[in-house]
Design a protein that fits this description.
Blueprint (H helix, E strand, L loop, with lengths): L1 E4 L2 E5 L4 E3 L2 E5 L8 E10 L3 E10 L2 E9 L13 E4 L4 E3 L1
Length: about 90
């Protein structure tokens, strides 16, 4: 699986977890040269608090387009240490 934004592969892995239609990649699959920290947080009733990264690729910023659960609730433990994408990031095989 690949996550692509702005014509650039930002993450790649054969080990993803599919949950609610989103592929969660291992954090290690996310290419660190493209991520920028974000202070944005949201809450999911059953997964817990989500934190975000922004993507910075070829001089363009995609704010809060990567999310992860640093400390997921027990029922979402399978996505601990994983990231997912939205805001125009294409996930393909």
């Amino acid at each position: 699986m690949q996550a692509i934004w702005n014509h650039t592969v930002v993450a790649e892995s054969n080990d993803t977890v599919l949950l609610e239609g989103n592929h969660y990649f291992p954090l290690s699959a996310l290419k660190p040269e493209f991520i920028s920290p974000s202070n944005h947080k949201t809450m999911c009733a059953w997964k817990g608090q989500a934190s975000y990264y922004s993507l910075l690729v070829n001089g363009e910023l995609n704010t809060d387009s990567v999310w992860y659960y640093a400390d997921p609730k027990p029922q979402a433990e399978e996505i601990r240490g994983r990231v997912a994408f939205w805001k125009g990031v294409k996930v393909t095989e």
